[in-house]
Write a structure and sequence with these properties.
Helix content is about 50%, strand content about 15%. The protein is an alpha/beta fold.
Length: about 230
């Protein structure tokens, strides 16, 4: 009987306890949870120091961006199977995860049957995409992407989606702004023009639906947007 050693990771301990019990229900093959992590950095450390077959993990950690998390896991262990369990099925996010090398991706709202099928697929060398995940955009009659107003509203109140709305450069500038740096100081730090910083700043405020620097700083504090290093 095959047995797979697995690490599971999520910010919520209760979710991890439930997931561990679900995995223990399967006996052929057997999924042995050998470690649990509540942060991205802890997950990376466990993978570096353990012999594991797979990692089942969320990507919305406060201490690391999803892309950086996956890249560092791949550097730590090229052979480990990566299975994302997320509350977010955004097309861009899912595609980015697969591009970086994950083997499976499913929504947390899915059931046990989907989980076990996904595990079976990735251990069989296949790529698994869970139900209700779209890898192509919804188009209207003019061939343009349909804007989901519900999602737009959600972006304004969700920490993870707020971060995902920004580019890597915008996140860098956002951190500098939060620390009180002027456009001139930011331009010197990043070796770009003040005009470029100003443009990025406008884009950040537009994406986060704020109209002033004060509102921006309040939003950062309220929803804990910045990565905790």
């Amino acid at each position: 009987m095959a047995e797979y050693k697995i690490v599971i990771a999520d910010e919520h301990s209760l979710f991890l306890e439930g997931l561990e019990r679900i995995l223990e229900m399967n006996h052929s093959p057997s999924y042995n949870v050998v470690a649990k992590a509540n942060s991205g950095k802890d997950l990376i450390s466990i993978i570096k120091n353990s012999e594991l077959d797979a990692a089942l993990f969320d990507i919305s950690f406060v201490d690391i961006e999803p892309e950086d998390l996956i890249e560092q896991i791949k550097k730590a262990n090229r052979k480990i199977k990566l299975f994302v369990l997320s509350a977010y099925g955004d097309m861009k996010l899912v595609k980015s995860c697969f591009r970086l090398g994950v083997d499976g991706y499913m929504l947390k709202s899915s059931g046990n049957k989907t989980l076990f099928k996904g595990l079976n697929d990735i251990f069989s060398g296949q790529i698994f995409v869970g139900e209700n995940i779209k890898l192509s955009p919804d188009l209207n009659g003019n061939g343009k992407t349909v804007l989901n107003s519900a999602k737009k509203k959600m972006i304004s109140v969700d920490r993870f989606l707020l971060r995902q709305a920004l580019t890597k450069r915008e996140k860098e500038i956002l951190e500098f702004l939060y620390n009180g740096l002027s456009n001139k100081s930011i331009s010197e730090q990043l070796f770009i023009s003040e005009h470029t910083v100003s443009v990025h700043r406008k884009h950040i405020m537009k994406k986060l639906y704020v109209n002033s620097t004060v509102e921006l700083l309040e939003l950062i504090d309220k929803y804990d947007i910045l990565i905790k290093k």
